[in-house]
Automatic annotation (TrEMBL):
Keywords: Signal
Protein name listed in UniProt: VWA domain-containing protein
Signal peptide: 1-19
Source organism, top-level taxon: Bacteria
Length: 241
């Protein structure tokens, strides 16, 4: 091939790249986050809206998008859903690339995320078909799936007592006193594809154990169960607040 043809080919390739929006810098990775709130008896035992207001804006710092999940008795039967929400202003929102304007938009979207979660909570509390039980695991699975790529630097905030109670597993009565018993239950969930995909995710739980049991030993057993479940799901060690 002649030098002229090589030059023409290079020019065409460059033009095509520019038309497609290519740049020299690699695309910035998107940090996905998940927010899960409990709409079962937990919401009657504590002020969930106040916890949302206090915790969510700070939690969303550094998040590019957030997925929402609500814990109810039957996740699949609930109509209380919302698409993931973008939290960072893009070129279409801030054509002049004004950092002050970008900050205002980002703050507004965090406020919108809190409102959306409160709306979903109110929606779930009004549903009669999903009142019985507490499918914490189902909400975790659904939120992780909705978020897309919950990995690497992703964060997950769960506002819940974590008192999972479904036909498959009732943490109020389940035999979880020993490591072997806990592992057996979680292995069964894993075989049934009932573990959330949380590889490398930072998990924070607010409200763990509120109103669940007055027995300190049982409380610790439930916490040990969740620590193992999150570990088997690939998450980093859990932070309890």
């Amino acid at each position: 091939m002649s030098r002229i043809l090589i030059a023409v080919a290079a020019l065409l390739a460059c033009t095509a790249c520019l038309a497609a929006g290519c740049t020299g810098a690699p695309p910035k990775p998107v940090r996905s986050c998940g927010l899960v709130v409990d709409a079962t008896s937990f919401s009657r035992n504590t002020d969930v809206p106040q916890k949302l207001k206090a915790a969510v804006p700070k939690f969303l710092g550094g998040c590019d998008r957030v997925a929402f999940g609500v814990i109810s008795g039957a996740i699949g039967a609930s109509d209380c859903r919302h698409e993931p929400m973008g939290l960072v202003a893009g070129p279409e929102d801030n054509a002049q690339d004004n950092p002050t304007r970008a900050g205002q938009i980002n703050l507004q979207r965090k406020v919108s995320a809190v409102k959306t979660m409160n709306d979903l909570l109110a929606c779930a509390l009004g549903e009669k078909a999903t009142r019985n039980g507490s499918d914490v695991i189902g909400a975790l699975i659904g939120t992780a799936r909705q978020a897309g790529a919950l990995d690497g630097s992703a964060k997950l905030l769960v506002i819940s007592d974590m008192a999972h109670r479904t036909k498959e597993l009732n943490l109020y009565t389940a035999e979880i006193g020993s490591p072997a018993e806990r592992l057996a239950i979680i292995s069964g969930l894993q075989q049934a594809n009932r573990l959330p995909q949380l590889s490398g995710v930072h998990v924070t739980i607010i409200g763990f154990g509120i109103g669940v049991t007055p027995e300190a030993v049982r409380q610790q057993q439930i916490r040990d169960f969740w620590d193992l479940l999150f570990q088997k799901s690939g998450a980093l060690p859990v932070t309890y607040l």
